[in-house]
Write a structure and sequence with these properties.
Largest sheet: none
Radius of gyration: 21 Å
Order of helices and strands: HHHHH
Number of strands: 0
Number of domains: 2
Helix content: 55-70%
Distance between the termini: 59 Å
Shape: elongated
Structural class: mainly alpha
Strand content: under 5%
């Protein structure tokens, strides 16, 4: 049993090594020589998402931005739920269907 536990820990550590190396590379890319963050700010990302330039970012613009960065279908289930709420289709009760249509 002890060997099995050690094996799981070793497997987890080996699986995490590439992620940790990538995180270190990314951190080095997004910080200056003094260790200060120099990557894009939240405001920068929101400005990039706001394609219709109305000052607001809706879920449809968020989805387009994320799929552009991470590929089509990125976080599909979450984005589908958010879009259903935005369209007023998230309530499944029969009386709500007439309200939202």
């Amino acid at each position: 049993m002890a060997v099995l536990k050690l094996g799981r820990r070793l497997t987890v550590c080996l699986l995490l090594l590439p992620c940790m190396a990538y995180a270190t590379d990314l951190l080095g890319y997004l910080t200056d020589q003094d260790g200060r963050y120099i990557g894009p700010s939240v405001a920068d990302n929101i400005a990039l998402m706001d394609t219709d330039k109305n000052g607001f970012v809706d879920v449809f613009e968020v989805r387009a931005f994320l799929e552009l960065k991470h590929g089509k279908g990125y976080e599909k289930e979450l984005m589908d739920k958010m879009e259903a709420s935005a369209k007023g289709q998230s309530c499944g009760t029969p009386f709500a269907n007439t309200i939202y249509q």
